[in-house]
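Please produce the structure of this protein holding zinc ion.
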Amino acid sequence: MNDILKSSQGLRTVIFDVSKIGDFLWKAGWAERNAGNITVRVDEFVDQEPRDLADYPLFTLNEFYPELNDAYFLVTGTGKRMRDLARDPLKNAALIKIISAGSEYRIICENQQGVCDFRPTSELPTHLAIHRLIAKRKSEEKIIIHTHPTELIAMTQIAELSDEHKFNSLLYGMHPETILVIPDGVGLVKYETPGTQHIALQTVDKFKDHAVVVWEKHGCFAIGRDLEETFDLIDVLVKSAKIFFQVKSAGYHPEGLRTEQLLDLKRAYGID
Ligand code: 2HA
Ligand code: ZN
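Below is the modeled complex.
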């Protein structure tokens, strides 16, 4: 891992940015204990194939990802903390390479012959399913962030907001930036057991039309081309959710932007 990193300025930049986002997530209060995970597709930065790839630990995937064959991902590890990722990214993230027509992967651990105790995030099925969607449609997103933003999760605890349209309307109504930054709104996935193929499929379905998907009573996923921009999508949504809860806790009902005001915003900024 270190050898590959030394040879690639691009990978060093990705590692730096991932650690910075780990710090943001921790400081935002969205990453308690080992909550959250990040993956970045990094093929373009791996300009030197690892020597003796066959020596690295091999794992079978529970699903086929032929579109991802030969792809490299930087992935955060299961059980790792975002605050540790920020301090020491190389101990809390690693490169994996998808091989065998998308049915297996190798972890490019620092220690080839000895023990490699690093394992990718428990949400790897969802991350890979989203990367597969991106590969299939040939869009340019490389980053996937999963985190636990308190206020967005709190909103999913309100039964009246379990309708996707109502959820988005409320968020749009709290601040004019929200519709501009997230014009396609967020997709809502009903509660499912995390880490499963089932939730991965439900999530991918929502990513066909959205850049952010909220998991009921759990957290959210966002995708993008750049780490900070991907973080910003979640941050803007959380801002709206915070405004909603602050007005509520002051004992008022938030008025929200009116339909004409939202339409004016869309017109002014060319959103259809
Ligand atoms: O990485 O957030 O959803 C831990 C999680 C699982
Ligand atoms: Zn989670």
